[in-house]
Amino acid sequence: MKNKRQETILELIRENTVDTQELLQEMLAQKGFTVTQATVSRDIRELNLIKSVGDDGVYKYRAHTSKKQEQEMLSGTYIPILRHAATGVQAANNLVVLKTRTGMGNAVGAAVDAMELPDCIGTLAGDDTLLIIAATNEGAALICTELKRMMGTESL
Fold first, then answer.
1. Residue 94 CB coordination number (10 Å)
2. Are 112 and 98 spatial neighbours (Cβ–Cβ below 8 Å)?
3. pLDDT, tens digit, 9 for 90 and up, residues 78-107
4. In a domain, 156, yes or no
5. Which terminus of the chain faces fewer neighbouring Cβ atoms within 10 Å, N or C?
6. Do 60 and 73 fall into the same domain?
7. Residue range of the domain that includes 133
């Protein structure tokens, strides 16, 4: 729950001008997260958010991390899902087929979507399979290699 809430906070500050903790608390409530001001304050500290002047001259919360660092943090959240649920992965031209345990295709699909893998242009989840569409054949091969690394199965 905490990881999902913090992921939502990062999305909210990336997509909106959020200048107060109270506004962030309201926005989280609209997304289904009922939290106290103390929780918002703790999340801001843990996410290393800072207030800085935006392009419009207004102070707002921003991630003090680079996009790459943010992705690494989110990947750390989703790697356990891959390791638990994924059973194999294979590239075919610009497609990557990731096999999962029965009933886990959607969960793995949500994790892969959240990771925003380079060259991934879309996913389609089934009950025990995730189809990842890459922009290029080379991109699919890179995605396949990266997923194998995350799964701890580089030799597959």
1. 18
2. yes
3. 888 888 999 999 999 999 999 999 999 998
4. no
5. N
6. no
7. 68-151
